[in-house]
Amino acid sequence: MSLELTIMIGSLFLLAGIGIPIAYAIIVASMAYMLATGTSIGLVGKTLSDGIYQSFLLLAVPLFIVAANIMNAGSISDRLLSFCVATVGRFKGGLGHVNVMASLIFSGMSGSAVADAAGIGKIIIDMMRKDGRFPAGYAAAITAASATIGPIIPPSIPMVLYALISNASIGALFLGGIMPGLLMGAVLMLMNWWISHRRGFATEEAVPMRELPAVTMRAFPALMMPVILLYGIYGGVTTPTEAAAVAAAYALLLSVFFYRSLKAGAFYSILIESSRSSAAVGIVIGGALILNYIVASENIPSMMASYLDGVNVSPLVFLLGVNLIVLILGCLLDATTIILVIVPLFIPTCNLLGIDLVHFGVVIVVNCMIGLITPPYGILLFVINAVTGIPLRSIIVEVVPFLVALIGALLLMILFPGIVLFLPRMFGYEG
Fold first, then answer.
1. Number of H helices, E strands in the chain
2. Is there a contact between 86 and 105 (Cβ–Cβ < 8 Å)?
3. What DSSP designation does 177 have?
4. 269-to-73, 107, 255, 259 alpha-carbon distances in Å
5. What is the pLDDT, as a whole number, of residue 78?
6. Cα within 13 Å of Cα(232), Cβ side
7. Which residues of the chain have pLDDT under 50?
8. What does pLDDT average to over the chain?
9. Cα gap 421→2, rounded to integer Å
């Protein structure tokens, strides 16, 4: 490792260690590298601005954020929750199943685990805690665990970012996330059913079957969001970025004209909040692009590929090793940083070993989401704690069984690539 790279890594760890946000730490550390190599630090600004403004795909990120914030406003969440209660509330541990199903549905709108946990998650936690149906820690834990599904089922902001750094098909990534997302929902529901039987949790009063069609029709327009997205991308009607614009427009039309639940003042607040969220993501992306430039300049991916080629690592061993690394890093870093900074190091080796980039990308995104609920630094645990006031200790104790279930689902996706690739291949993907 060169002296210049050592200076950059040392600066990065020092700045991050004293609490400077990771995006700013990367940018300042990159400047230190440029100074050490005698290169103009103006290259940092040029790389950042060129990387962000020359990527049409990145425009999908703020558009998906706007769509999510609009869909989470007004009466849409109430209608979707009524649909979930009517369909799965009748089973043992009913509101736990409702929690997971709501995350499956809202994941088709937000593409953000934090948005799901802070928005619809708080509503369901209050429902689960009412009249002592479920312990507060358990309600918070299953909410955090189910929120990890958000960025797996399309739309998915992390998958857009992965497509940016890997050149993998965004449409194939979106399709590839559907079955893993459903698998994650299934293992969480199974764990909830088992725990509910052991601990005697409540079952909701069954909604009469004759009322189910009416409840479904009230939620139907909102349920069509992921269908419209996937048809637009895979039907050749829109690019992924244009599909994000369609999603935002559809959410706005639905909220204003169909449900009539969005007022002008609320829409202004949504735009302000979406701008802040987009800027926060944008600065991390910019920092990561600079770091990727430095990594390429140091020829690190080629050196890694040569080393792995020399030791003759099998694709499965490589996948398991990378996922173990990402699982550990997920305890410390956010998903955006891992995808944009760490994952590009492994892309050349994936190509060398013949690992499908769509399979690799979906598995990595699932892994990053599991990191969001991994103690001690899982960000979703802190988000739930902040919005509900439930003690962090009780959340961590209750989240462990769900964490184990999700790691089991991740292992299945690694061992059986067909779980990820079945739908993309059915729609013509040749990977």
1. 24, 0
2. no
3. T
4. 11, 22, 15, 19
5. 66
6. 20
7. none
8. 80
9. 40
